[in-house]
Amino acid sequence: MQIPNADYLERTGSENLSARLWRLPPKSANTLHKHLRQEEFYFVLEGVGRMRVGEATLTVPKHGGVLVGPDQLRQVFNDTEAEVLWLIIGAPEELEFLPGSATKPDLSLIYPVDPKRLPPELAGAAWPPKR
Question: What is the pTM of this model?
Answer without folding.
Answer: 0.85
